Amino acid sequence: MKKQKRQTKSFFKDLKIYTDKEVMAKQGQYPVIFITFKDEKHSKWEHCKIGLKKIIKDEFAKHRYLLKSDILDSFEKDEFIRILEEKADYVTYLRGLKILSNYLYRFHKQKVVILIDEYDVPIQSGYLKGYYDEIIEFMRNFLSAGLKDNEHLEKAVLTGILRVAKESIFSGLNNINVCTLLSSRYSEYFGFTEEEVLDILKYYGIEANFEELKNWYNGYIFGDRVIYNPWSVLNYVYNFKDGFKPYWTNTSSNDLVKMLVTKGGAELKKSWSNLSKVML
Fold first, then answer.
1. Which of 55, 144, 175, 225 has its Cα between 20 and 30 A from that of 202?
2. Euclidean distance between CA atoms 72 and 78, whole angstroms
3. H helix runs in 2-120, sequence order
4. Where does the AAA-ATPase-like domain start and stop, copy by copy (predicted)?
């Protein structure tokens, strides 16, 4: 791990984070498992299950070097290979996070950091396409195995757009710290702050356009901070000669909102109406 730290530390040299001594002291110190579910939008559970297996297989493949080490016995190597070949049984995939973190800990002699991005995407698809119970069962067991009572886990971070009820997939976890749009902690990290936007515009010599940019691209409030959409700001800077455009339009699906609005009961529609009045 020390060799890897020397190789990657230079990537951050010209970035602000490089000046944070506490953070940089931990850079490269932990083996990492990174999984994203962003593309798991399927119309059938069978297709979703195939996609989930491939995600787990791909993460194991990143750590194929473990097969060349002597920390795995013959049974564990066979299991590893079955996962790579997508021939492992269903329960083995459910235990994928726990299995891989165990192997990584034994190899690196260091606990593992697990990062899971957009965990709610397959759940939303399951809700819309009729396999909600199946995907909830998978996610509950998958996350519980990897995050609860995992002695090889240093820390885990899950990100998502939807707030999934704790009793549905997180009932097995008792040490979750939830940060929402209303939370002040980490609020400045969900996008660009006003100071950061000004720095970007000054760097490119277009700071005179700030007020107009503010009218177009700010408006997100996380906790007590006004946050700017990074995608919109960066696209504008790159194409500033073309003027301001709604770059964020159509970059995400609103299917769930549409379904709830059209098919929801009277109470939901009343709540939606009240929310709209507050926003206006």
1. 225
2. 10
3. 2-8, 21-26, 45-62, 74-84, 90-94, 96-108
4. 3-170
pLDDT tens column, 42-81 = 999 999 999 999 999 999 999 999 999 999 999 999 999 9
3-state secondary structure at position 150: coil
Instruction: Say how far apart CA 52 and CA 137 lie, in whole Å.
Output: 13
pTM, rounded to two decimals: 0.83
Residue labelled with tokens 């939606």: 272
Cβ pair 94, 131 in contact under 8 A = no
Would you state the structure tokens that stand for residue 209, as one six-digit string?
Answer: 């356009």
Name the nearest CA neighbour of 100 among 117, 90, 114. 114
Nearest Cα residue to 218 out of 204, 201, 202: 201
**H or E element at residue 156:** strand 153-159
> How far is 212 from 236, CA to CA, in rounded Å?
11
Q: Which of 44, 50, 37 is nearest to 139 (CA)?
A: 37
With beta carbons less than 8 A apart as the criterion, state whether 23 and 12 touch.
no
pLDDT one-digit tens code per residue, 192-202: 999 999 999 99
